[in-house]
Amino acid sequence: MVKEIVQFFLSGKKYAVELKNMQGIENYSPIAEVSDATEAMLGVVTIRGEIIPVINIRECLNLQPAPVTEATKYVVLRTSYGKMALVADDVGDISRLSEEDSKDCPFLIQGSETGYVSFVARDGHNLILVINPDKLISENDWKSIRSKIEDMEE
User: Fold this and answer.
1) Which of 56, 92, 103, 133 could disulfide-pair with 7, CB 3.0 to 4.6 Å?
2) How far is it, in rounded angstroms, from Cα 121 to Cα 98?
């Protein structure tokens, strides 16, 4: 089965999400902070009139913060909990993967702290972790985020 992924960059490394989870790619705009937000949430951003939580993917991946540049983008994703935005240093290509180029996550990197990895994609000699947006943050964090956004919309 062919899988399509959208590549993005964080701290010089390639990551990806499946195209089926994509809502879109948007130019960066300032993030509005939310008081008492969970660590998983950087704040919110309004995209096309909709308030979308910005998830701290760098925290999930244990990466250092990075400065915003002209290339910084929002990767807006659909999850079973609602939409979320990730801040990416840059966005790459859409790739079609054959079965040989996508492998289940090796047990060495699959665990409670890395459950967000859907599978590993091969790009030449490089490996790309493909992120499952439903697993980036806990259900409890999602409930807290939804509650904060509902309060903002009232």
Assistant:
1) 92
2) 10
- How far is it, in rounded angstroms, from Cα 7 to Cα 25? 11
Q: What is the pLDDT of residues 100-144, one digit of tens each?
A: 777 776 554 544 455 788 888 888 888 899 999 998 888 888 888
Tokens 């399509």 correspond to what residue? 4
User: How confident is the model over 79-107, as pLDDT tens digits?
Assistant: 998 999 999 999 999 988 877 777 776 55
Distances (CA, A) of 12 to 68, 114, 117, 121: 14, 20, 18, 17
Beta bridge partners of residue 43, listed in sequence order: 54
* Ramachandran region, residue 81 (left: φ > 0; alpha: ψ -120 to 50; beta: rest): alpha
| Cα–Cα distance, 39 to 43 (Å, whole number) | 10
Q: What is the pTM of this model?
A: 0.88
Q: Which two tokens stand for residue 53?
A: 């939580």
Helices (H) and strands (E) in the chain, counts: 2, 11
**Which amino acid, residue 15?**
Y
Comparing C-alpha atoms, which of 136, 129, 135 is closest to residue 58?
A: 136
